[in-house]
Records
---
Amino acid sequence: MSAETLIWVAVVVVAVVAIAAVGYVVLQQQRRNRLRTRFGPEYDRLMSESENRRQAEQELIAREQRFDELDIRPLDQQSRSNYAKRWNEVQERFVDAPGFAVTEADQLVTAVMAERGYPTDDFEERLSTLSVGHGATLDHYRSAHEISSRAARKEASTEDLRQAMVHYRALFQELLDETPANDHHRKSANGHATPHPREAGRDDR
């Protein structure tokens, strides 16, 4: 084989390796963008807490895989109406018994999750599963749960409890409002779950 041929072979090999490297980088970036879009703030939170971005992204992919194995389904109209009525009753009780109302709100959110097919035995498992479709409101749920835990120890003020109700409602409303039609819409773009446009932060009454 002549020297000129060897040079051309080397050039081709280098070009192939370069193209493969560029392709790998592009695929990695596409995956990263998809995960960031789907998980929203949860992606950023996990990246900030992890020392290894690749491992953190693999954890998010694993969450997607576990989620796909579940039978997550929207509520029927009757169930949505019943839960909405129960939520209004909980809000009314907040005036006279805010601590009790927050406990009820937590139980109501858990009940909706269970009926829709989400695992509810362990709080961290709930967060992991919810992050796949509700990353934008997951911090609301975390905050509500943290305040509820402090309330159980008598360490939460009335204003804290009011904020817990607001936080619980953010996730509750999303879980309640999903129907077969809008659930498909939420997941149609790169698997991304788009937040429901309903304002979650307004006052409870």
Note: The mean pLDDT is 81.
---
Amino acid sequence: MTILMIKSSSDIEQGMRFLEKTDQDLAKIIDKEGPCRLKIDRKTPYDALLQAIAGQQLHANAANAILNRLKLANSGALPDPGALLKLSPDQLRDCGFSFRKIDSLYALAMATLDGIVPSYEEALTLSDQDLIDRITVLPGIGRWTVEMFLIFTLGRMDIMPKDDFGIREGWRICKNLALQPKPKQLEIATRIWSPFRTIGAWYLWRAVEQSKPLNKRNPLTL
């Protein structure tokens, strides 16, 4: 089993060149945007997923405020799984978590202690699909959340988040279509981008941002 990861800027450069040659429409997006600035924030799966749960359906500023309150409840640092399980539901509610998110946090902590959620070192050895299968059994964590973890935490090279609205809108813009593709259509159409679909996905997000005023663009993909 070959696990493809972005390890350096040369990997990104190789992907850009491949995509430019493979897809003339995407090449125009790449030419307009310039070099891919995908940033990988390597951390434990537990930490990445905890932060993902906190940020679900919230603006980044609101999510950061909740995480800061969680740190204050744990002597200034994000709680490890054992420490999180010692926090009461009332304490987590005071941080700003909903009841649904509290259930997800407890499940994440227990699954990490049980070895279902792997360590960072183990995650490096598991395939994309293995990680998706293992982590999506947890309440409140779906395929999209794991795909974001695969891209932005592990730096996996060949991820196409076909259910992501922005990705499908970026494809519509890139291909000058009247309607967005269905997820399955997008999955099939982008197979020719393999093994660099992560970089292609980044440019599809940027295709959407290119059409917005500067002050409305998503800072996560800048």
Note: The radius of gyration is 18 Å.
